[in-house]
Sequence to fold (128 residues):
Amino acid sequence: MAQVPSGSEQRGNVALASAREQYRASLVQLEAAYHVMQDALRDGTEALLAIRSHLDRGGSAQEFVHDMLPQPLRATIAHALDDWERARHESNRLLWRLLLAEGHTHAEIARSFGVSRQLVSRLLHETG
Fold:
């Protein structure tokens, strides 16, 4: 006859499943942010190549600044990098919560990632 899990075991299973689903969702967001960042960096690379080509042909800096409008490109790249960093941070935080739900200690998580136990503790207590 199968043993019925206790109330605390059932709560633990629910917490583990919730942590796993939250981490999985964060990976989807991280992947989306990565693709946006990749596109922004690709646009930046194309602009750099165009500028270099313009200079190689003897063009002036004023011409490419006027024609290429660097501010919107810079803003797009900065925004994409910020979004990716926020998604990466949240994904790490949720991974650490999942590891904690699976029974790992703060010290074990810190050792695995090469960070301090205090950082692990602080991120685990952040609200997302």
Notes: The helical segments are 7-56, 61-68, 70-101, 106-113, 117-125. The chain has one domain: 16-125. The mean pLDDT is 91.
